[in-house]
Amino acid sequence: MIKVVFFDLDDTLIDTSKLAEIARRNAIENMIRAGMPVDFGIAYHELLELINEYGSNFNRHFDYLLRRLDLPHNPRWIAAGVIGYHNTKISHLKTVRGVKRTLLRLKEMGLKLGIITDGNPVKQWEKILRTEIEDYFDEVLISDFVGVKKPHRKIFEKALRKFEVQPGEAMMVGDRLYSDIYGAKQVGMHTVWFKYGKYANKELDYLEYADFVIRSLEEVPEIVRGLNDEEEERSDPEVHAD
Amino acid sequence: MIKVVFFDLDDTLIDTSKLAEIARRNAIENMIRAGMPVDFGIAYHELLELINEYGSNFNRHFDYLLRRLDLPHNPRWIAAGVIGYHNTKISHLKTVRGVKRTLLRLKEMGLKLGIITDGNPVKQWEKILRTEIEDYFDEVLISDFVGVKKPHRKIFEKALRKFEVQPGEAMMVGDRLYSDIYGAKQVGMHTVWFKYGKYANKELDYLEYADFVIRSLEEVPEIVRGLNDEEEERSDPEVHAD
Description:
The structure is a homodimer of 242-residue chains. Chain A is built from 10 helices and 6 strands. Chain A has a 6-stranded parallel β-sheet, with helices on both faces. The longest helix of chain A is centred in the N-terminal third of the chain and has 18 residues, at 16-33. In chain A, helix 1 crosses helix 2, helix 1 runs antiparallel to helix 4 and helix 2 crosses helix 3 (61-68). Chain A has 2 domains: 4-15 and 95-241, HAD superfamily/HAD-like (Rossmann fold), CATH 3.40.50; 16-92, DNA polymerase, domain 1. By secondary structure, the first copy, chain A, is of the alpha/beta class. Chains A and B meet through helix 4 and helix 6 of A and helix 4 and helix 6 of B. Chains A, B: This is Glyceraldehyde 3-phosphate phosphatase. Chains A, B: Its cofactor is Mg(2+).
């Protein structure tokens, strides 16, 4: 009997990768408009490399971009980049298609909901609050607070304890086969791989840990209903025998 | 003959203090809405004290606010504060009344214009770009790049060199008697004190360095015209004798 459904945040509930791509493009365009003398393609490629090397939470991307492009330090161009990036972040931050409908349906079915995510806690909460999905969730678990990253079992175990459920009563939905699906399966949860975004064809070595593979979140309520109906039949043999 | 007019940025061209006040109020309100269990007045007062002690460019205001209020660290409340603050910053950032009209008039009179400001270069450029005043200015001088702060004479001397003018050919307009007016007067510029905002009644010991005191920026073109007409008459005695 599934009692709790956990969701990953980035690229499961919120379209983070798509947002980041648009924001980065707008940043570069704004820098060029402010006078940065570089071809768009070259600057964008260099920015992606930089993010790849330094990580997406590095806060001096635009400074370093100028260095890599052999350009002088220019706060005007950097400011233009920051403005382009932030304006996009605020106007384009969106939930993945079908999220609100899915969450509402699960709540109507009487389920508890949680988020299990990695990342900077303040930035993760910013996404949750800006997209106004906070009220659907009973708990938000951020791995930083446990001092680990998914797929470490500690964060999944903590999630189960918080909701006082057994692993078999919980389901994890996420876009990453390694961190979400393998992670949740280790502690015995049901797993649903959301084949979406930039990890849709990655980490396939861990495919065996996915109980279900979906391409739309709106399949989640059906899966839960299916599992719970099945179990009800099994535990109620008289009804079954009718 | 005035050839260049320099302006300070914060609270002269851009309504920074008013903006910061609204942004801080909205941040606290948003934190309370997100569940922070504190009275608005208490939290706001504590935030002002904190900014006073750590400076306005400190980037952990909301973290430290929770510590000072003896509350647990809560990324949700911090994120709510960040959202409230940033949304305000973007929607309320405005030039001071009359700025664009004044700048346009000065350009029509054939003057060169510059900005002389302290502060974080990227943040200062963000304000200039967001309010769309960049095209009026021939140079933006930020003291950080010279390694000093106003009223250090180095930044004013650099400004004069950039425009290749004598001190008597330049005018400084700013809201701070100490950093703007005393600073510019040290190197021999004409000075116009804009008696406005939170420094309207402060640093009065330096009042003697102000050649003019104005309450509206729209008085600047008249002052320049007055000085330039006067000088023309003096240097052209025949016309004067008519």
